[in-house]
């Protein structure tokens, strides 16, 4: 067993589908989750309701370049826990 390959991010963005940037913190430190590889984006403020957001990641993993992009949609109201 050799060292675990590192995730090295070179470009990471979070924005609305309309192009408005969202400030965030990114964490890809494997020690955070017991050695599991991950990329976690934590917005600095609450995301707005009823908005499409776009996540864009670029970097390398195990010295191989990657580009990943996906969209997600926030709901229309806060969950009340009921």
The N- and C-terminal alpha carbons lie at a distance of 48 Å
The percentage helix is under 10%
- DSSP summary: helix tally: 0
Unreliable stretches covering 5 or more consecutive residues: none
Largest sheet: 3 strands, antiparallel
Mean pLDDT equals 87
Helices and strands: which structural class?
mainly beta
Shape by Cα distribution:
globular
- State the order of secondary-structure elements, H for helix, E for strand: EEEEE
Assembly context of the chains: single chain
Give the strand tally: 5
C-alpha Rg, in Å? 15 Å
Can you walk through the features of this model?
- There is one protein chain.
- The chain is an all-beta fold.
- 0% of the residues lie in helices and 46% in strands.
- It contains no helices and 5 strands.
- It has strands at 7-16, 24-27, 40-43, 52-61, 64-73.
- It has a 3-stranded antiparallel β-sheet, with no helix packed on it. It has a two-stranded antiparallel sheet with strand order 2-3.
- β4 (52-61) and β5 (64-73) form a beta hairpin.
- The N and C termini lie far apart (48 Å).
């Amino acid at each position: 067993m050799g060292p675990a390959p590192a995730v090295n991010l070179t470009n990471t963005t979070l924005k609305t589908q309309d192009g408005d940037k969202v400030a965030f913190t990114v964490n890809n430190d494997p020690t955070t989750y017991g050695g599991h590889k991950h990329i976690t984006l934590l917005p600095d403020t609450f995301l707005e309701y009823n908005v499409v957001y776009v996540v864009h990641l670029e970097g390398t993993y195990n010295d191989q370049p990657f580009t990943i992009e996906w969209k997600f949609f926030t709901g229309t109201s806060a969950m009340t826990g009921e």
